[in-house]
Automatic annotation (TrEMBL):
Residues 257-289 are annotated as: Disordered. Belongs to the actin family. GO terms for cellular component: RSC-type complex; SWI/SNF complex. SMART domains: ACTIN. Coiled coil: none annotated. Pfam families: Actin. This is Actin-like ATPase domain-containing protein. SUPFAM superfamilies: Actin-like ATPase domain. InterPro entries: Actin, ATPase_NBD.
Length: 458
């Protein structure tokens, strides 16, 4: 097969809210250089002109072609792809435009007909020489360098649970949960009705919004006694009788004064979890004070995810391969950047699918590094199976682990790991368009021979 240089490759990863793209792949893969809203604007043609789309317009005629991973307006989506290709084409010489190879990250929610129509548009309208499509879950597998795993992809309005075995998506085991990051917003809106929708989103993305572990809750302000003060010796109270009895009145008072002065000079930083209220700044620069509501809103989403992970893995036909997925779970998507989100999903998975002895929680481990009292390490100790899982050979995991991300992509550390599927798409594009393996992408000549259905031959 023909090969394409890294600087000739265009990677496009569309999402319901934003679309990421990168033209030209550097040796050290970097975050996407193009991040645009997934929207276009419709316009009514004058006289005998056809209706058309553009990248600018009024909010009254805006179109969002993707919703919950589904293509709800295919013509608008095709225009979005053409717009991205045109944008990158303007950065290179005209004679080099015909050499751009395109990799598109797809959703399992796209129909076969939609995928074939996209293929036809890419070759006949945009006129590229090479094209391929990879599922988003598989891109996540490439990013982690794993061939057997379970991908939890949390989107805006849905979450996909996808088992992958030998780099092949187990379509029959995939599950879609009709809950995503927007369900967090909905719960927060109920508890904080005075905040507008954009302010709820800003709160969710702020540093004060987090999910507390059980240990963190016990040490937080929730553990205060009924008077609102911590139990034990009260700060600032002097035992006068003890001082007089010691005969060191002057020295004792001097020591107390010194302690008081030192306390005012160095005020300790109080963790967010130990504050009764905290403030965040919204995108318009306004400050808002929020109470314990900042620790809530994720319960329903996490419960649905944990249940779906078990159901998806249990649908893998080869019972002996299920443990491979339990040992390599990855969680990707926008809201995985919330403090404590991944840790809480892990803790709930262990709680629901593994019954531990009493000492387990102090020994339990995963691939996390966290300042909070959350699981750390990589292995779990011997377990005792219980409940409905007893006697179901191969149904119950002996261990549950979250896969650890590779550390040789320094530019991604500051960007965040929520969008690692795009990194995986870049890794996949490098390998696919190298030409070393037959049948990994579709050429123009192959398309001309078979037509749009040839996309299923790769």
């Amino acid at each position: 097969m023909p090969s394409y240089r890294d600087e000739q490759i265009l990677v496009i990863s569309p999402g319901s809210e934003t679309t990421c793209a990168q033209f030209g792949l550097a040796e050290s893969l970097s975050p996407p250089s193009i991040v645009i809203p997934t929207r276009v604007y419709s316009h009514v043609g004058h006289l005998h002109e056809k209706n058309y789309f553009s990248s600018k317009g009024d909010e009254s005629n805006v179109i969002y072609p993707l919703k919950a991973g589904k293509i709800v307006n295919l013509p608008a989506f095709l225009y979005l792809l053409k717009m991205i290709h045109k944008t990158v084409s303007q950065t290179i010489l005209p004679n080099a435009v015909s050499n751009i190879a395109v990799l598109l990250v797809s959703s399992s929610q796209w129909s076969r007909l939609q995928t074939e129509t996209i293929t036809q548009f890419i070759f006949e309208n945009i006129q590229v020489p090479a094209f391929t499509i990879i599922p988003e879950a598989l891109a996540g597998a490439f990013a982690y360098g794993l061939q057997d795993l379970c991908v939890v992809d949390i989107g805006k309005d849905k979450t996909e649970i996808t088992p992958i075995l030998d780099f092949s998506v187990a379509d029959h085991a995939r599950l879609v949960v009709n809950k995503g990051s927007s369900s967090i917003n909905a719960q927060l809106q109920e508890k904080l009705p005075h905040l507008e929708a954009y302010q709820i989103e800003d709160l969710k993305k702020s540093d004060i919004f987090e999910i507390l572990s059980e240990d963190a809750r016990k040490s937080s302000w929730f553990a205060l006694n009924e008077t609102g003060a911590p139990e034990g010796e009260e700060e600032g109270v002097i035992d006068v009788a003890a001082i007089v009895a010691s005969g060191r009145v002057r020295e004792a008072l001097a020591e107390k004064e010194k302690e008081k002065n030192n306390a005012t000079k160095v005020a300790p930083s109080v963790p967010n979890s130990e504050k009764e209220t905290n403030t965040f700044i919204d995108s318009k620069g306004n400050s808002h004070e929020v109470g314990k509501e900042r620790f809530s809103g994720t319960e329903d989403l996490i419960t649905a995810i944990v249940q779906a992970v078990g159901q998806a893995i249990y649908q893998i036909d080869e019972v002996s391969r299920r443990q491979d997925c339990w040992d390599n779970i990855i969680v990707i998507g926008g809201c995985t950047g919330i403090k404590g989100m991944r840790e809480m999903i892990y803790a709930r998975l262990c709680e629901d699918y593994i019954v531990f002895r009493q000492s387990t929680y102090s020994e339990m481990g995963s691939a996390f590094t966290s300042a909070r009292n959350t699981p750390t390490g990589t292995a779990t100790p011997p377990v005792i199976y219980g409940g409905a899982h007893q006697g179901e050979h191969g149904q119950v995991p002996t261990t549950i682990k979250f896969a650890k991300m590779a550390e040789y992509f320094p530019e991604w550390k500051s960007y965040g790991w929520e969008n690692v599927s795009f990194l995986g798409a870049q890794i996949g594009a490098k390998a696919i368009f190298s030409g070393n393996t037959d049948g990994t992408f579709l050429t123009l000549s192959e398309y001309n021979d078979v037509g749009p259905t040839s996309i299923w031959d790769i």
